[in-house]
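Students often ask why we bother encoding 3D structure as a string. The short answer is that it lets us treat folding as translation between two languages. Here is a chain of 264 residues written in the first language.
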Amino acid sequence: MENHSLSGRTALITGSTSGIGLGMAQALAQAGANIVLNGLGDLQEINTLTAEMAEQYGVDVIYDGANMLDPAEITNMVTTAEAKFGCVDILVNNAGIQYVSAIDEFPEDKWQAIININLVSNFHTIKAALPAMKAQNWGRIINLASAHGLVASPYKSAYVAAKHGVVGLTKTVALEIAEQQITCNAICPGYVRTPLVEGQVADQMKAHNMSREQVINDIFLVAQPSKKFVEVEELGQVAVFLCSPAAKSINGISLPVEGGWTAK
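And here it is in the second language, the structure alphabet:
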């Protein structure tokens, strides 16, 4: 794809101060889009990050610390972005949290937080961003679901329920905007190499007295036939593709990027 194919567009990516979200933001910035970052972290570090991204890619980069548990803050984030840039042309719903527990022991507050951040926040961002997309008759909505939006694993009831919900929401939105130049699709990654996962690998090595390779193959990638982590850069390029003219007829899909996990 030629560079700056998204020049003049603006992309808002939730949960984008690190990991997958940051990789998506960097890929979209490299393609020429202005960026609205959102997420947790040290404000000074985030300000440094926005300045570095703006300089590296030659685009405008702003940060909004909206809490993904608060509908009013979510709506205000979209409104603020529209006031600056005119429209959120590309919306990437990436913010997510995880908690692992047997369902009969699952803490109710953890369940609710996972549903609210991983699923309900997507409803609020889409509801807020869609009117301006409709008005200009162009938009791209990309929801980060998961392989767990397509298949289940034990002890992840809230996450699996939320991600299946994201897949369903994606299909519904796609049908509602199908006659306009707007698409809504989900990306369903398997295990992705992020700083968070790298930390978990180290923890598991200690806990099980296993080598790094054993932990990766036997614990993390046991369900991923490729036996390789998905790289953040791959997901960024998938997002750029879904925003490109080549993808204008791709609408309502849940695209697995997981080394064959859901083929089984």
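Translate back mentally: The mean pLDDT is 95. Keep this in mind for the problem set.
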